[in-house]
Amino acid sequence: MLAAVTAAAAVVASLAPAAAEAPKRIASLNLCTDQLLLALADPEQIVGLSPFARDPVLSWTAAQAERFPVLSGGAEDAMMLKPDLVVAGRFERRATRELLARRGLPLADFDIVRSIDEAKQQIARMGALVGHPERAVAHIAAIDAALARLRAAASRSGLRVLAVSRRGWVPGADSLTSSLLAAAGLVNAASELGIATGGFASLEEIVATKPDLVLVASAQETAEDQGQAFLLHPALQRLYPPERRIVVPEMLTVCGGPMLAEALDRLAAALTRAAP
């Protein structure tokens, strides 16, 4: 663990030099920046979070978010809180970004995370922005330790895995999910479907591809709507019973951040159960 902490400290030092003075009032407009902020900032630094911050399906920090105001995701109500820093996704609406710029509010953009390394870089950056690089070091070390446990559990390599979510959505080869699979020596079968960053696959395409395992967000056996019903189709149930399904909740993979340590441990546990 000491080696992981030392390596994490080096990442933080090289990628995210500490700010001269930490902001005292920070607003977040994005689900992923919400979670980074909640993990790394002091509660009194946070003045508002995105509309999805309390979503228990998507947000790993939904319970923590309950104590903070929820914003619309636009610039107007964020400005009313008079933050000295706004953190957001790089692809926020152009009008929102322009309005914040006109008001002279500092904006820190965070891109979509497509790999474990990018996730660690963002943790380091947010830790520096909020004035708590030591917290970033601890979270990065936890991810590195989970990576080591996963590699120790991955006794089989080269298995083809297809991650499938609602209505047949499949994250592509250039995605965080693909990076997690690669860390375990697994292959994202999405490339066989020609899916690079993400796209929908039909039931027929999935069955024809015949991945060794499927990765799903839930072990739920009943569907609440048509989107979930896709995953419970008899053909998929027959080909992929529970022992051939890896379950990693969506809240652990939709963003890159400290939650990746838990995602990696879930993957390690699933591989241990699946090992011959």
From TrEMBL:
- List UniProt keywords, sorted A-Z: Signal
Show where the Fe/B12 periplasmic-binding domain sits. Answer: 25-275
Can you tell which superkingdom this protein's organism belongs to?
Answer: Bacteria
Signal peptide region = 1-18
| Cited InterPro entries | ABC_Transporter_SBP (IPR050902), ABC_transptr_periplasmic_BD (IPR002491)
In Pfam terms, one family for this protein is: Peripla_BP_2
**Regions crossing the membrane:** none
What protein am I looking at?
ABC transporter substrate-binding protein
- What is the organism field in this record? Rhodoplanes tepidamans
Lineage of origin? Bacteria, Pseudomonadati, Pseudomonadota, Alphaproteobacteria, Hyphomicrobiales
